[in-house]
Amino acid sequence: MKKIDAHHHCWRYNAQKHAWIDDSMRAIQRSFVPSDLQPALDANGVVGTVLVQVDQESEENQFMLALAAASPFIKGIVGWVDLQADDLAEQLEKLTSATIVKGFRHIAQAEADDFLAQKEIIAGIGTLQRYGFTYDILIKPPQMKAALKLVQALPNQPFVIDHLAKPYIAAGALKTWAQDMRALAQADNVYCKISGLVTEANWTSWTNEQLWPYMDVVLEAFGPQRLMFGTDWPVCLVAASYNAVVASVGLWVEKLSAAEQQDIWYNTAAKFYNLR
Fold first, then answer.
1. In which domain, by residue range, is 37 found?
2. Which of 68, 103, 210, 230 falls between 20 and 30 A from 6, CA-CA?
3. Is the dihedral of CA 93, 99, 103, 107 positive or negative?
4. What mean pLDDT is predicted for residues 215-230?
């Protein structure tokens, strides 16, 4: 069954710029480029990927465009723009010529809990809508209510929630997160990535049985046609190999029909990001 990895990263490691990669994450304290990923893609039937921003600077877009130009498996890019910039529309206009740029993301998980509900941010994301760009929502559970206000304010903007909003899997916290996720799923312009879960569990002792209840919640809430698979490589490597991440999702989807499995593995991402 063919697959799209709808969420991975590349970076040229810089200890100062990437201070978030602390000593607990030594496995990824180095540069990662597309050639590092190619063998894992080939081994797992992944025929295309979506490369997602890491650094919050305009140069990030050019860095990713250069990687994509040399790496045919990269089918889409989620870049970064300053959503509050006075020239936001002009920046977006220029980027429309690079058709591989599909959308944008901000590291909202590092902002105040109400960040995505602020009128300036809603206005900026509303500008993306005019140019046909998607928006990846990167948040933690305390920010889910602000995200709900955002998606309700922009019902025609395509959104996707990264990493199931990073539930507290290691702590086994499910109830409140599940309530907030079901509320977000009520907006039919919102999709969700099954990605980044191993790093929200205990890195050394996680099990499928700990991850799958969270995946069950989003399956019930969104359905297969609004769920997409991603690995969050190379961040996932602090807790699991690429193969192990794919295998965990692969075992979980066995209960679904072949068509539903293909939605999660491939079709949803291809449709949401308009991949070719």
1. 3-272
2. 210
3. negative
4. 98
The answer to pTM > 0.85 is: yes
CA distance 163 to 264: 14
The total number of structural domains that make up the chain: 1
User: Which among 54, 50, 49 is positioned nearest to 31, based on CA atoms?
Assistant: 54
Write the DSSP assignment of the chain as a string of letters: --EEEEEE--B---TTTTTTS-GGGGGG-S-B-HHHHHHHHHHHTEEEEEEE--S-STHHHHHHHHHHHT-TTEEEEEE---TT-TTHHHHHHHHTTSTTEEEEEE-GGGS-TTGGGSHHHHHHHHHHHHTT-EEEE---GGGHHHHHHHHHH-TTS-EEEGGGG---TTTT--HHHHHHHHHHHTSTTEEEEE-S-TTTS-TTT--HHHHHHHHHHHHHHH-GGGEEE---BTGGGGT--HHHHHHHHHHHGGGS-HHHHHIIIIIHHHHHTT--
Give me 169's structure tokens. 């899997």
CATH of the domain at 68: 3.20.20.140
pLDDT one-digit tens code per residue, 161-172 = 999 999 999 999
